[in-house]
Every structure is written in structure tokens, then in C-alpha cells.
Amino acid sequence: MTGDTSSQRADLEKAVRTYGGFWDTERGLRTLRDAGHEPQEKHTRRILRDFAGEGLLVKVEDRPVRYRTPQTG
User: Fold this and answer.
1) Residues 24-32: what's their mean pLDDT?
2) What is the pLDDT of residue 1?
3) Are 5 and 31 in contact (CB under 8 A)?
4) DSSP-based three-state secondary structure for 59
5) DSSP letter, residue 9
6) Which residues, 6+ apart, have CB-to-CB distance to 13 below 8 Å?
7) Are 18 and 31 a contacting pair, CB within 8 Å?
């Protein structure tokens, strides 16, 4: 489909909000490929870091880096 970074970010954000749970680079890459993108690992990691900075994800592991959606309630 596309390598457009803004649409990759939007599609990944939608998936994180829809499915929640734990996220890492591999899950992000797989999600973007399933959405029809041709993602790059470096860019996907940057999107996940941005989401953590915005509070959409919380970093729970450093090596390998893993995130989760924040606990609610």
C-alpha cells in the first residue's frame, strides 16, 4: 500500500487503542504489514516511543523494549 509515515502512525495508533495489551517492535511491524504498509523497524520503534511519550503506552521493559497500554479504572 504505502510507506506514508503519517498513515502508518494513524493505523498503529488505532490498533493500539483497539487491541491494547503489550506492544513491541515486532507486533508493531506485523500490525502495519497487516494494514498494507511496508514499515521500517527504526520508524516503528520511533512511533512506539512517541506513543509512550504521549501516555498512550507505558514502557515496561528495557531489553527487549516492551510497552503496554495503561491500566484503567
Assistant:
1) 98
2) 45
3) no
4) strand
5) H
6) 51, 56
7) no
Q: How confident is the model at residue 73 (pLDDT cuts 50, 70, 90)?
A: very low
Whether omega for the bond prior to residue 64 falls within 30 degrees of 0, making it cis, is yes
Long-range Cβ pairs for the range 48-53 (8 Å, 24+): 48/12, 48/23, 48/24, 50/9, 51/12, 51/13, 51/16
Give dist(CA 30, CA 72) in Å, integer.
Answer: 26
User: What is the identity of the amino acid at 45?
Assistant: R
pTM for this structure? 0.89
CA distance 19 to 15: 6
Contacts 24+ apart (CB under 8 A), 46-50: 47/8, 47/9, 47/12, 48/12, 48/23, 48/24, 50/9
Q: Based on DSSP, count helices (H) and strands (E) in the chain, helices before strands.
A: 3, 3
